[in-house]
Design goal:
This protein has 293 residues and is of the alpha/beta class. The chain has 2 domains: 159 residues, NAD(P)-binding Rossmann-like Domain (Rossmann fold), CATH 3.40.50; 114 residues, no CATH class. Helix content is 54%, strand content 13%. The chain has an 8-stranded mixed sheet with strand order 3-2-1-4-5-6-7-8, with helices on both faces. α2 links the parallel β2 and β3. It is elongated. The protein starts with 5 loop residues before the first strand and ends with a helix.
């Protein structure tokens, strides 16, 4: 397998980062395809190793292994393009989190072995992807040689493999959104609140980052229940009431976000302290939500 040429379908952050990582680990990346040759050229230059910029329809002529790293909504149409361009046999992977190998049905119908390989990591730029994808977990699904190839990539990147059953990938992907994208949203909401205190965004992020990092580190080391601290964990309804009154004057959805998260955290606090009474606190959060609506 290691000698078979690889083609990258997609010139975005994931495609560039994985292409470069594979090339650096001795895998032959022959070509990169994108909607425009200009984007394909830039991605090929980043990947290095002489990868050629090509169109999607040219890719089957360059590689027997194709890694499709494009937005979810474009996967089916690109798979159909590759099939229509003559790709038959060989292997294809896609990096989508919400779908399994079934979305590559046009290629499977032509005898291509198909699987899914989703890196459970946020990739904000190709450079950060190269630094942060090694050691990440990879959700794989499929069968045959393509599944073996997905496992090989995870192994080359010293990653943990997560075997996601068919039909469960949307739940897996929702978990990824909560653990990554929602954290970004929560931090931005915290920055908004510090802005209401007269602190600029850059200073607010510098101040909040160590707190967020410690919370993530504690959760990974101790588990969510033991890592939970703060007024909700203590059942401090008085402090939460003060928060809610202050949040009433903040524009946007920050107050509702606080209330919804607070209700979830109250359930977590109940699990941590089964004998404690959180009813007053939960009622405050529910009434605040109702008032907002």
């Amino acid at each position: 397998m290691s000698g078979e040429q690889i083609g990258i379908a997609g010139a975005g952050r994931i495609g560039q980062a994985l292409g470069r990582l594979l090339r650096e680990r001795g895998e032959p990346v022959a070509a990169v395809a994108s909607r425009t040759l200009e984007r394909a050229r830039a991605a090929a230059a980043f990947i290095g190793g002489g990868a050629e910029p090509v169109s999607y329809s040219q890719l089957p002529g360059c590689a027997t292994r194709v890694l499709i790293a494009i937005p979810d909504q474009a996967i089916a149409s690109v798979a159909a393009t590759l099939a229509g361009a003559g790709m038959a046999g060989g292997m294809a992977l896609h990096t989508c989190g919400a779908h399994g190998a079934e979305i590559l049905a046009p290629l499977a119908a032509r005898g291509v072995s198909c699987a899914a390989l989703h890196p459970l990591q946020t990739v904000a730029s190709p450079e950060r992807g190269v630094a942060e994808l090694p050691g990440a977990s990879f959700a794989i699904e499929g069968e045959g040689p393509a599944l073996d190839w997905a496992a090989r990539i995870a192994g080359l990147l010293q990653g943990q493999m997560l075997r996601i059953p068919p039909g469960r990938r949307p739940l897996y992907h929702a978990a990824a959104v909560l653990a990554s994208n929602c954290v970004v949203g929560l931090l931005d909401a915290a920055v908004v609140l510090l802005g209401e205190c007269g602190i600029d965004r850059e200073q607010a992020l510098r101040a909040l980052a160590p707190l967020a990092r410690a919370s993530v580190s504690n959760t990974a080391a101790l588990g969510p229940i033991q890592a939970l601290t703060g007024p909700i964990e203590r059942g401090d309804a008085g402090t939460v009431a003060v928060h809610l009154r202050s949040l009433a004057g903040v524009p946007g959805s920050v107050g509702e976000l606080y209330r919804q998260c607070g209700l979830y955290l109250a359930g977590l606090a109940r699990r941590k302290s089964p004998g404690a009474d959180f009813r007053e606190l939960e009622q405050l959060l529910r009434e605040g939500r109702k008032d907002h609506e």
